[in-house]
Amino acid sequence: MKITRRLVADQLIRYLHHEITLDKLLDWAESAMMESDFEADYFELLRDIVSRIGLADVREFGMTWEDCEGYLSRLGYRIEVTVSKAA
User: Fold this and answer.
1) For residue 4, how many C-alpha atoms fall within 13 Å in the half-sphere facing its CB?
2) N or C: which end of the chain has fewer CB within 10 A?
3) The pTM is what?
4) What are the residues whose beta carbons fall under 8 Å from the beta carbon of 37, sequence distance 6 or more?
5) What is the rounded distance in angstroms from the CA atom of residue 44 to the CA atom of residue 80?
6) Which residues of 45-76 are buried (b: 16+ CB within 10 A; e: fewer)?
């Protein structure tokens, strides 16, 4: 499977929407690093982001909201947040 900007963004978005757990995101990132078939034009960017995601389970690294926002920004996306009152 080719690792593209869209695929990496989709995985991060799924995580932020609570569609996948952090553990699932980490598993995906570790598999993607082993796959090593990154979109050629964005090889360095994708490898950097995916490798950082893969380290999110290490206490010293972790992964914050700001990290996700930064990764998505580097991939060409912008996060917009909507907050509503709970019922």
Assistant:
1) 5
2) C
3) 0.88
4) 1, 2, 3
5) 26
6) bbeebbeebbebbeeeeebeeebbbebbebbe
